[in-house]
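Friendly challenge for the regulars: who can give me the structure tokens for this chain first? No prize, just bragging rights.
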Amino acid sequence: MCGIAGFQGPLNTTALDRMTDQMILRGPDGRGTFVDAESGLHLGHRRLSILDHAGGHQPLWSRDGQLAVIFNGEIYNHGPLRSELEALGHVFRTDHSDTEVLLYGYRQWGEDFVKKLNGMWAFALFDRARRQLLLSRDRFGKKPLYYYASPGLFAFASQLDALTRHPGVDRQVSRTSLLKYFAYGYIPAPGSIYLNIYKLPGGHSLCLNLDTGARRTWAYWTHRIEPEPLRRGQTIQSLAGELESLIEEAVRTRLVADVPVGIFLSGGLDSSAVAAMARRHINDLHTFCIGFTESTYDESPFAAAVAEHLGTSHHLRILDGKELGLIRQTIVSGLDEPMGDSSLLPTCLLSAFARESVTVALGGDGGDELFAGYDTFRALRPTEMVERWIPGPIHTAIRKLVNILPTSRRSMNFLFRLRRFLRGLAFPSAYRAPVWQATVEPEELADLLDGPVDLEEVFAEAIECWQESANLDEPLRLMQFYTKIYMQDSVLTKVDRASMLNSLEVRAPLLDVNVVDFVRKLPYDLRFRAGRGKFLLKEAFRTALPAAIVDRSKKGFASPVSAWFYSGELALDQPSPLLNRPAVDRFLRTHRAGRADYGQALWNMYLLNAWLAREGPLRKD
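First reply, four minutes later:
Bragging rights claimed.
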């Protein structure tokens, strides 16, 4: 795993060095730069050495010096692609670098060669002859890529704070992005916290003409749920066996590295399935788990049971408040853009813990999105019944009654879920997925940001996603939201930032292109059945894992931020120049009085304040 950065503009090697060095945690093992004075192109790279230590230095050039690439990620099918390209006459310089496949894949198949890749990536490829720069990001956006464009300057980087190290990049905070940050808990692509700085969305490429400055951006791939009826001869058992085989192959290819590899093991079905498949290929498999002293957040006994069943070398660290306090400072000092998922904390600690022993870890990300594992899928049927049988004024009255009940500090308690469920009922279907997740209720946004709010603009990404999947039933439309928006901009962003703060590469076998292509065609009742998600995934691993693991309910991976604000361990001492202070104080008083659980909203405010303090003076639109 690495970090990339670059720009086209006036010659400025100091700016390139600053951008590149800002990403040292992404690539502590090496550094490379290139400047083309004729075009004004600057390329910078930081390397975390995973494959081909000797031959993988970047920028990596083609043999004729016409193509160069800087690359962040891993291409898991680079071996077969290399063989195919060699058979077509291409001669490689490296022994087994996956990066070099990008150069000759582009030369052979053109800009859309990325459709042949199975992996995670963000890269910039310089074509000297065509005078163009090609940027691309993997299908689900596992690897980040920001860019900025203004007259005379185009710049890009793996991290937002690396991009803004260029003096020509304007740092003006977007009010719309702030609203989205509190409405979603993250900022969906293509937006960023800044005006005129964008995320290249997952599944997209961008081509820059170095002579004219003209840009083209296009989607080379879009996740589409296209359920198909079972074919003749297909059974649940045969499909479960096929799914298991696909996941095993995805895990096998992700175990390939020239450095030690381990497994994130939470004790949930997704990570346990990955561990079970990895154990078939590695005798001394190392698994890593974080536990909590607060029992309602702790899954470590389940992880220990899986490790014992599989016979892994299991590593467990139980966290207390002091350790979580220390890691908060790491996150505050290293987070390039505010994001509100409190599981960033334990994920960062887990990454630091695993990095003591391994350089690469495999995780179970993607299982909840692909197989309808979230509570919101369970809420769809009750939502339909309430809307059909209970008049709107009555659910409004019920919601007001529930909101005055005392809150609980237990993780994902019943009252917390009920309040979220009732909140969603007040909005049209297209809004419900983000509203169920929101850290701040839509009607509170205007008060917090002290001004008018256009909810259609705030939830534009969710509305667009809902409209694009109009041919699907509501559960599958909800699944499309989770897969296309929430997974990319919250789940995968969290894992990337937490792991890269510790120079650890994390791979997601469940998001293998072949696994995804199989799952997207499954009927919904093979994902969600009898009020439970992950039906076929559970059937696929019934013989490989204990029944208590396969059939247990989802717990989630979170932090007790509500308790920290309730006890005063966390505070909002510094007023934010971007938020309405009376509204912030009201949130905090209400939370500490136990009248509502605003823990996630307060955590969002805390991170925003810390980020602003680190970034220094900014302009506000």
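The mean pLDDT is 88. The first strand starts at residue 2 and ends at 8. Your move, everyone else.
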